[in-house]
Amino acid sequence: QVQLVESGGGLVQAGGSLRLSCAASGSIFSINAMGWYRQAPGQQRELVARSNSIGRTNYADSVKGRFTISRDYAKNTVYLQMNSLKPEDTAVYYCNVDFFSRGAYWGQGTQVTVSS
What Å distances lie between residue 25 and 2, 9, 67, 74, CA to CA? Predict the structure, then answer.
């Protein structure tokens, strides 16, 4: 079993910042990548940022330069620092942990709302 506990969502004004956290626990050996996805109402879930096992990161074009993903390997935690937030960043953000041999697990989601 894998448990993912997310925190850090909320309501913020445009231009503000939020930091999301996702802590993984349970059977968490052989993690490949950890990342964040988001889903706005009526839209498909999309990749926001991802960090693989060797520290390589990739970002959605829409968040490059504003969001930063980081990992604490000792704590099996992934963070998403979100700066210069825009109303179009409003969505439910989901933590994703991908294992080498067991597929991916999802967090329960945390709401991020950016007001204009």
Answer: 6, 20, 25, 12
Which residue, 18, 26, 22, is CA-closest to 7? Answer: 22
What pLDDT, in 10s, does the model give residues 14-36? Answer: 999 999 999 999 988 888 999 99
Q: What is the mean pLDDT of residues 62-71?
A: 97
DSSP reduced 3-state for 94: strand
Per-residue pLDDT reduced to its tens digit, 43-59: 999 999 999 989 899 99
Q: Could you tell me the end-to-end alpha-carbon distance of the chain, in angstroms, rounded to an integer? A: 40
**Distance from C-alpha of 22 to C-alpha of 7, rounded to nearest angstrom:** 7
Asked whether 114 and 43 are in contact (CB, 8 A), the reply is no
